[in-house]
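Loading example: each entry is read as two labelled lines plus one structure line.
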Amino acid sequence: MTITQIFKKAQRQGRRVLIPFITAGDPDLETTKRLIFTIAQNGGDILELGVPFSDPLADGPTIQAASQRALKNGLTLKEILDLVKDIRAEINMPIVLMGYYNPFFQYGLERLAQDAAKAGVNGFIIPDLPIEEAEEWLKHSRKHKLDTIFLVTPTTPLSRAKKITQKSSGFIYYVSVTGVTGARKELPKDLIANLKQLKQITRKPIGVGFGISSPEHVQRLVPYADGIVVGSAIVRIIEKGQNPDEICAKVGKFIQDLAQATKIKN
Amino acid sequence: MLPDKRGRFGIYGGKYVPETLMPLLAELEEAYKEAKRDKAFKEEFHYYLRQYAGRPTPLYFAERLTKHLGGAKIYLKREDLTHTGAHKINNTIGQALLAKRMGKKRIIAETGAGQHGVATATACALLGLECVVYMGEEDTKRQEMNVFRMKLLGAEVIPVKQGSCTLKDAINEAIRDWVTNVCTTYYLIGSVVGPHPYPMMVRDFQSIIGQEAKKQLMQAEGRLPDYIIACVGGGSNAMGIFYPFRNDKVKLIGVEAAGLGLDKGNHSATLCAGSIGILHGAMSYLLQTPDGQIQPTHSIAPGLDYPGVGPEHSYYKDKKIAFYTSITDDEALEAFHLLSKVEGIIPALESAHAVAYAMKLAPKLSKEEIVVINLSGRGDKDLGIVFERVKKEQGE
């Protein structure tokens, strides 16, 4: 299933799209594999799979630490692609790779687009690749029918947001806060107004992320966003878990609670 | 004129930053363009350089060093004599004035050795701005006195405990702060690195070094030098002296830190041993693994201990506008001792790399040839490091 199809399907079912994030290889690749099944089986719609980088400058402490744990085991991008390929036959859930530009650039953009498409990856989120620098990547990703999801933030002027929504495919990632990733207790005050404004300039689905950490947050966003990304709150469960069984059980329960909250109430 | 409209030096440079910062970078570019056209801004900048920082710095003929090496005539551009003891102050005064003009009241900066942190804290004290400095925890231990110095100047110093706890992690953390507080905060980058327009701005503010050197040498010798040597970490002092000579028939030589040796893997010689990649907002040469993870670096000179380099240097390397070589820890230490004894000038360990290369080069040149070394900073800050080294050697 494609990302676009998932949004349409959820719309028909009267709910929003749940987009959980985990870092690949945290704490190890075997657990990541189990977590992908757990997330798919408990109501995750699209998986945002983090590709670890040594210097993740858009991430807060939780995801930084996850990247470090993954890199300690010497994880490579090739292994992540192999993992996706390995599970693709059994998992229908779209998978988006979220990673910084340098590891992708070193892999080779053309080769990456080709290998990712072959492995069954659906799209990419590259937080340090703004639209101005993305031409080369878009050339290859479009050729292989991969979505590239660009970010719009509270500091983005509307005129610029329009350009970004035109380039973005799959969905538009709206960054809820002026800041880095990380679970937060409160949603930003101006978030709903900002989402309403963004809705007026694009017909593409809008996924909102950064700081969304509970089913209550999800519920509050359901009227205004098409998709909801939850990252650090899940990564924290993985960080605290003692063993893979416990991690999968707790993440599974959390995903269920989040998925419950995605229903549109009339 | 480089960089081009997209902030590129050939393929290098650009703006690889989170979307949150993109509108701010456009605002900064516009503010800088306006300031550059504004005579009053230029006058204010030069007023502070002259009356506060102590410019122009001398171009000193190092007669005893020249005799000792027995070859080319050696001149030292004495950036070590500026206020705060290094060239860093040229840039921090320029950018702090720009920040003030933009109405930003909070300044953040990263620092490795602490020199840029001290220079930023100084400029902020001078202009009445709030100052927060990020410094790798490892570096706060290595350079304790500079931490104290920054605090005396009214800055808050935040030790960074992420990653390798050194300069690159301090930059990451400063960028995270900037992403979070972008509306109120100005990020004062200390070298010709980062996203456009920083490499251009820092170059422009630092190019006062080369402009002065050119004039001074014309007065002293009636001609341009044959060689200019400068150390390269991020590359701001080198770019500052190279830039005004880029179109002249002068050999520009950047000296990187070979640390324990290029073959040993413990070094910071980005241009000599790195490959092209993207870090801290720009495309440039990098020290990285084949998977694109940033590699740990080493140099005895904390200011050179950085896995990236300014994008304009990468361009100069490819276009052969400048040449880049490297010097080991041991060679730099030898130069540190030599310059101290022969000229009575204790150089910063960073600058000692440039001196060390001159020690190799000058004896091979004729007495008519002229070499200018950019003595980017003074060595007081490094006495602790050298003291420990000497103690250890004597113990052995």
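The first strand of chain A starts at residue 17 and ends at 23.
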